[in-house]
């Protein structure tokens, strides 16, 4: 009796069956755990359904692979056929697989989240939803100037995260540096112009100085970054036509257009109030006299020819 039990326990076929049972149990325990703890957090019903279907497909595929490995010496050429078929399926579904990998990168890598303003696949806008295969974006720009919505909803494959750069305008540092340029006529009061721009920058964009400084300090503690000036600053460059004043300031990423409008309004009002002490410059063109044109000489040259 003991010898029969020993023969059964050490039978290769029984060992393979036990391996398959244990392996299949481990595969589906992992699949069900992922579905319960990870996929259940997906709010969109359609995306959650697709994620569960895809994970089930992966579970069946792994089960087939396990069977082919355990019975490889018995299956012979069938294992090769299954391998070739699996390679063909993987090749035909490579875009879907890469998109799913991109979704995992979003979930665990923190590339962006819903509500962030990003540029992905050449499309800029606010992230509405992050699906298993696609990211939904409310587009900005295009035929609409500035960072305003144009009303077009764009679905972008998650695979683009591995193909192109991902620009996040509102991630760990929800501010942008922006600037306006003011051309000032030569002979103006340059010091007064600089004071006007500096004061206007502080009045309109100066309230973000402390907040943006704190956010930048947090980035410096996490990454290797140089110190950056978050206070409004004015720089001056002289060219052939005028003296160009540039006001650089920090602004919230969703208020670039409105902030720039307020800045230009205040600058125009205050410079015009100087009554000519500071004057705007504009491009001028001077017409010079051309060389005299001898029509009789041209006619004689034509006749000789």
Largest sheet: 5 strands, antiparallel
Q: What value does the average pLDDT take? A: 76
Tell me the series of helices and strands, N- to C-terminal. Answer: HHHHHHEEEEEEHHEEHH
Strand order within the widest beta sheet: 4-3-2-1-5
Number of contiguous helices? 10
Straight-line N-to-C gap: 125 Å
Spans of at least 5 consecutive residues with low confidence? none
Strand elements, count? 8
Structural class, by secondary structure, is alpha+beta
Radius of gyration, rounded?
34 Å
Helix content: 40-55%
Shape: elongated
Strand portion:
15-25%
Short description:
With 305 residues, the chain is α+β, with helices and mostly antiparallel strands. It contains 10 helices and 8 strands.
Topology:
Layout: H1 2-9, H2 12-37, H3 45-70, H4 72-75, H5 77-92, H6 94-109, E1 117-120, E2 123-130, E3 134-140, E4 149-157, E5 167-168, E6 175-184, H7 190-205, H8 209-222, E7 233-238, E8 243-252, H9 256-272, H10 295-304
Antiparallel strand pairs: 1-2, 1-5, 2-3, 3-4, 6-8, 7-8
Helix pairs in contact: 2-3, 3-5, 7-9
Provide an overview of this structure.
The structure is a single chain. The chain is built from ten helices and eight strands. With 305 residues, the chain is of the alpha+beta class. The strands form two sheets. A five-stranded antiparallel beta sheet has the order 4-3-2-1-5. It starts with a helix and ends with a helix.
